[in-house]
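Please fill in the sequence for the structure shown.

STRUCTURE ENCODING:
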């Protein structure tokens, strides 16, 4: 069986999640990297929304992927794979939050933006605005913050967000409406804030998580030095 990571780096059709899962279960653990790179940012953003701590959220991402790999045969396909692994991460993040019994300080977090070609002064302003937005999101009550991150930052549908959070769609809509209202009250509308750089997860950070998880599950990376580093930490 040809490793999917090798196929994914060609012009061949992009394998679906179900195809990747089937390859992993058939004895190709390295292909799990396809799923990790496909959903790392979503899983990180979900964990980060709960914990408000980037380092701890990254640990949760690793643990969630290892748990997903270990229990992959239990994935029944009733929800999408992305929803399934996001729920694993959310449950792990909530468990950690209960265990630590404390809240992180808002000023611990710095904005992380993708690499751009903006002039330096615009880059500084973009980082400042993204930092203000991150702080505003972090200040939201947890139930509003998680709904907002999944729905507005990650772009999930209301149905997908409800499935991840295991709540009715009406609850998602209510929480999202409340979150948007609270954010509007804190952010100056003149900012024209973009959420693109908020809770970003790519480049070396993504590579680090992938390498750590592949090591923990006993698989080798199929990308090696050819990893696309066009997205900065």
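FILLED IN BY: designer on duty
SEQUENCE:
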């Amino acid at each position: 069986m040809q490793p999917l990571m090798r196929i994914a780096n060609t012009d061949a059709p992009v394998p679906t999640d179900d195809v990747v899962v089937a390859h992993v279960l058939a004895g190709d653990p390295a292909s799990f990297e396809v799923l990790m790179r496909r959903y790392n940012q979503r899983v990180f953003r979900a964990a980060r929304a709960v914990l408000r701590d980037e380092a701890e959220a990254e640990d949760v991402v690793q643990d969630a992927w290892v748990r997903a790999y270990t229990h992959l045969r239990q994935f029944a396909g009733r929800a999408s794979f992305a929803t399934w692994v996001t729920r694993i991460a959310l449950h792990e993040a909530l468990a950690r939050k209960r265990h630590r019994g404390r809240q992180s300080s808002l000023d611990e977090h710095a904005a992380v933006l993708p690499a751009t070609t903006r002039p330096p002064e615009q880059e500084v302003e973009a980082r400042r605005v993204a930092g203000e937005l991150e702080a505003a999101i972090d200040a939201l009550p947890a139930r509003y913050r998680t709904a907002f991150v999944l729905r507005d930052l990650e772009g999930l549908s209301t149905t997908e967000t409800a499935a991840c959070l295991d709540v009715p769609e009406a609850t998602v809509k209510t929480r999202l409406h409340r979150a948007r209202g609270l954010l509007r009250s804190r952010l100056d509308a003149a900012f024209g804030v973009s959420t693109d750089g908020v809770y970003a997860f790519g480049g070396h950070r993504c590579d680090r998580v992938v390498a750590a998880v592949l090591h923990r599950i006993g698989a080798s990376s199929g990308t090696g030095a050819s990893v696309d580093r066009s997205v900065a930490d």
